[in-house]
Structure formats: structure tokens, C-alpha cells
Amino acid sequence: MRTYIIKSLFKHPFTFSITIRSKTTSAQYVASRARDATFEKLMDKYKNFVKVIAIQDLILSNPNKTPPCISLDFLSKLSQKLHLNRGAPSFLRKYPHIFHIFYDPAKSQAFCRLTDTALEISRKEEEAVNASLPLVVDRLVRLLFMSTSKSLPLRAVFKVWRELGLPDDFEDSVIVKNPNLFRLCDGNEPSTHLLKLVGDFSGNHFTAAVENWRVTECCKEDCGVDRMDIRYSFKHVYPPGMRLSKTFRAKVKEWQSLPYLGPYEDLMEKKKKTKAGLKGLEKRAVAIVHEFLSLTVEKMVEVEKISHFRNCFGIDMNIRDLFLDHPGMFYLSTKGKRHTVFLREAYERGRLIEPNPVYDVRRKLLDLVFLGRHDMLTSKSRSVEINKSEESGSENESVD
Fold this sequence. Notes:
Elements: H1 2-11, H2 17-20, H3 26-31, H4 37-60, E1 69-71, H5 72-77, H6 88-93, E2 99-104, E3 109-114, H7 116-131, H8 133-146, E4 151-153, H9 154-159, H10 170-176, E5 182-186, E6 193-197, H11 209-219, H12 246-256, H13 275-295, E7 300-302, H14 303-307, H15 319-324, E8 330-333, E9 340-343, E10 347-348, E11 351-352, H16 357-371, H17 380-392
Helix pairs in contact: 4-16, 7-16
GO molecular function, one term: RNA binding
Protein name: PORR domain-containing protein
InterPro entries: PORR_domain, PORR_fam
């Protein structure tokens, strides 16, 4: 009987999450979550997309070559660090639309460069990031304002520079160029720096993404709810096929109506460790991570990266468990030996509902990862490579 009960709990874990949390390990809690096939399919390719980005950055960081390239010997030495389990050459050959392997007779070495298509995507992403600098500055200001001290360790910001759409030289192009907003100070530890928010910002200067959603919901023609009824609510979209018991629905309804301080409101005094006080702190923590994800370009981030901000935001609880406790708002994937969280409401069928220019460009590169080796004979990038080879008559031959 006991075995049957445990199996039933893990089949539909969130129905009983409150009662079984104390009886399960953290790993069991992660494993028991309700899966979403759409997000899992996306992450199945995204785990390799992360590796593609890492190799692309290595290639582009070698400006002495025209076009930029990197030797396969050097890349092979980094295979373990980059998690290229079958070696660098094998991984590169999986994505001929992105990487081109060629042999340099003068150096008696094989090299890798980006295809013309991949280079063009990289150039367009840089243009999109530079064009969105005003938005980037606003994101960084909001992030700092959510901090209890209005400051963040610079190393934590470095962790999420790509997620926030920051340019790779953001210290100069964003921080130094906006002295009226940002200031770099020495941290408490040697060789550490704090990024501080300067200037006068009132408490109602910023509006959280969830508040905009509430206004939109109330303004709908077919809206059947009063604004007062959803003034503390968050949008919930549950995984397909997930069974929701009456008890679970009742607890969610109770949680939705619970008052809390928003992510841009100052926590004037520490909440008492009463049941109501702890619930309020949890809901504030949910509001902060919800806003954090809303500020990212792709509405997703690795849990390990966001954990670096936990103390700065005054979140006194496990970030990963926070995501698992609210499956209607967040989806946690464990693909690629990393835990990645998505803002569920921002996605539909594996794509952002409201894309932005930086996301659109990155999606083109992700689509090439999805493409893999397919359509090589008809792809524009392959045609360019063949034409170049024919016109130059060089001895450089592709080995892929």
C-alpha cells in the first residue's frame, strides 16, 4: 500500500506538493515534476545551441584572422570544458550550416570558421543589441532597483549579460557612458566590484510586467473579473495533461489572493516568521524572479545564474524549489546537465509570443541548430561555400 501511494504522489506531484515536500529529497522533487513536451523539445536542441554559442564566441574573439577562425587542435583541448562529448570535429560536423572546417596547407593544420550565414547572423545580433541600448539601460536599472541595497556584484551581472541583451563591452558602452545612473565601487572582497544605482528613483517609478498583465486582463471586452479580484494574481498556464485536484486549485486561489510587496517596493521591515509572514515573503520572491525573467531577452535563464542574485534580492529560500512550487508560472528543464527555467506565460509552441529584435536574430541561429545536416544541397550557405571554392581554385578543401 505504501509503495502504491508514493507512486501515485509522484505521478501527479504538484497536486500534493505541500504534503510531500518534507518526505522527498530535492532531486526527487525535480524528477517528479510534470513534464512539458514542447519545452523539453526546445531544450533538447538548446543544450547544443549553448555549445554553438561558446564556439562562436571563441572564433569571433580571434580578430587577427580574416575571416576569424580557430584551430581544431586548440578547440579539441577545450572539448571537455565545452562538454563536446564526442570531440570537437564530430560536434562541428553536426552543424555544417554554422561551422566550416578547412585545411591550411601553410600551417599544416585544420581550422574552423563560421559560415557566411552564421557570420551574418552574428553581425545582425550585434546591430540589434546596439539598437536596443536604451532598453538595455532600463533593464539594468530595474535589476539594480530590485536589489535591497540598490547594488549588485559586477560578477553576477557578468553571469547574465547575454540574457539581458547587454553588449559584450557593457562596462564601457553602458556603465561608463551613463555615470548619472551607474557607479562602480570596490566590493567587500579583494578584486571584486559592486555596480551601484545612483540618481533619484521614486518607489512608483517602475511598473512590473505582471501589473501590466492585470491591466490588460481587466481591459478585455469579454473580461469577467473585477480588477480588485486579480490585483494580487499572476497568470497561470499549466503543463498539458497535468491533473489539478480541487485541493490544489483551492490552494492556488488562496495564494493568488494573498497580498504582497511588489519587486520594486522596498521591504521596510523584516517580516515576522509567522505563517502569513512567510507566505508574503514567498510571494514577493515569486514576484521578483517573475520580473527578473520578464527582463531577459528570451524569458529564460539558468537557475544557477539567477541564484547569484538571491541574497541581493533578499530571497531567503531555495530558488529552484520556488520554481517547482509554481508550475503554472515557471517551467524547469534539466536538459544539458543544467537547470533552466522558462517564464511559461511568455511562450507558445516553443516560441516567444512577443518576440524582440535580439530574440529574432538569435532564433535564426537556433533554427540552424534545429536544421543540423539537413538541406545542405539547397542551402544558401553551402552554395556560397561551393562558389568560393570554384572561383578561387584554392587547395583548401572542406573535410566535413
